[in-house]
Amino acid sequence: MTSVKFYASKSIGKYFQDEINKAFVKPELNVKCVPNGVIAIDNRVTSSFGVLTAKGKFVKESIVCHRKGKRKIIRNYHSPPLPQTYPVIDCDAVYLGDINSSAFGHHLLEGWNRAYAFLDENYRDMKFVFLNSKRLEIVPEFMMKLSQLLGIRAENFIILKETTGFRNVYIPEQGFMIKTFSTKEFGEIYTKTAENVKQEFTFDKIYVSRARLKPSQKTFGEENVQRIFEKNGYHIIYPEQLSLEEQIALMKNCKFLAGCAGTALHLSLFMPSGGTVIQIKRNKLKDCNVATQYLLTECKGQHLILIEGSIEETKTRHSWPLPQIIGVTEHLKLFFDDNGFTYSPEDIAFDEVAYEGYSKANAAIKTKPLQKIVKRLSAFLWNRQ
Asked: For a Cys staple, 308 with which of 8, 95, 145, 280, CB 3.0–4.6 Å?
């Protein structure tokens, strides 16, 4: 059972608790078998997909609901008309869903959440099938690599761009949903993957930094905060500069993983049970991925510490195309003190250089023509759908 501790104001602490209270762990998962099943793309619309029976009836278990209330399925639940002819492969297949996102973090949570079926010997030698409804010409390498590291043979990992039939199609129930639920089976996917990575590192304390991301993605003030962690035994890493195997290998022996809220902390999936994740909230509004990170620690049997760290001037949401800044708030200082961190007065002093950079970035966005802001926000929101 995950233990959770807050270092936050009363209102943000209540928000953290309310979000966690909504999340839950599913006790069991089911796998649906569809004889002569068809994994179909609807050519009439983009990003529409699912599993059909041989008679063309949509199988509701193939609904992909990555986030509560946002279902990416065949439009209006109507089955696409089956082509008069389509290829049929005389073998059994496990349906993994659609390649929903080319972003690594989202694929970990939303694209790979049915892969636990491979851990059951009843399905291990079947074909594992993704549907490429968007017909991406280049499939991100990490998708192939994750399948290999889990143990799926290359010839058994298929990405379809056209409607295809199989002898039987098995549909594992989704093992994770952002902010909503997780399962022990979902956590086992990443435990097994980490076991199959041979490279070893021995850092038991790691801080994952956003400081070397491009300016539009970095968190201002983080360099000063991470220096305090580094002085207290934390190894600083920049995930975007490491190979997938290196990232996983670093997590295998990690006992304490710290960083700002975001995708990098999803690497906790590759940590062993019993570890602790330390997440710093980098925005002021009551919006962040606290429930999602809680569910990740829950399915791995880890502990979670949540810290309010934002000192931003313009209040933002967790993911928003506006600059964000953190600093040594009273809550972060209390965390340091409670956990025996050493630091100097200079270490925790207000970071004027970082704040100046943050203010300039904020002012630059505010002075852009309205239409450019609307265009940027619209593109951002569209990519989050």
From this structure: 8
